[in-house]
Write the structure tokens for this entry.
Amino acid sequence: MDAPQPGIFALSDAAHIFLEFTLNSNAPARRLVELAVGLHEPYTTVGGINLVLGVRPDLWRALAPNDAPDDTHDFSETIAGIEGFTIPATQSDLWVWLAAESYDRLWDAGRATIERLTPVARLERHVSGWPYRRSRDLTGFEDGTENPTLLEAPEIALVATGRKGAGASIVLFQKWRHQESWFRLSVGAQEAAMGRTKADSVEFEGDRVVQTSHVSRAKDVVDGDERDIFRRNVPYGDVVDYGTTFIGFSCEQSRLHRMLVRMAGAEDGIRDEITRYTTPLTGAYYVVPSVTALGPFAPPTEE
């Protein structure tokens, strides 16, 4: 398998900056990717920063057709669920994820990234992420409970050898704003909505399983087999405006898309209870090419 971008699996980072850029009118798309690939120096080699780059699926296919996974497509249409619930499409052209052990390492790199890309693209959105109670999101529940181990994660997150785009991943990036109404629920009501216990994150079984729970709706089961994804979610915001950045990696975009459709109730009319207490503000897919596939876009080595 072609080498993946290593930052996908860098679990120890506590501080995060996410930047989404849209290509300027008449600017060459290839130049945008070249400038982004050049961000690796000097911050990531000796600066202690992990960098992950994602490219809009249709744009990457145009630039590197032999390295584009088969089932990828832009997040170009809003997902319409039941009861007026929708998941917006806010697709941009480039996704930059900077992560490090502390935010002070990221500040200069974030500014440098924006300055470097501004000649060909505008900054569409930005958000900073941070850890909460080690591995919990701001609902108070542990996030990524069913994530695979790092030994298993590459098989789930990366396109397999022999397929187009081998070593790449497809990421779903979203910003979900949490609502104060969640905190007015009892712990029992929160657990029923989530589908697992709050204190120790034990998934409900048998009669305790509720069809509308997040655990039930977020699962993608095909022919009796659950198709997993690899989550890297982190909280964002302050004490007034806050929520979760959803960062889901998969070897197949269809897994990510079906999860959203099921959460919205668009598949079978059953809506995820969590969507009554948290609102999706953005939605975009990006191909995260392998290091090998990004090689031809690397700038010449500067003396």
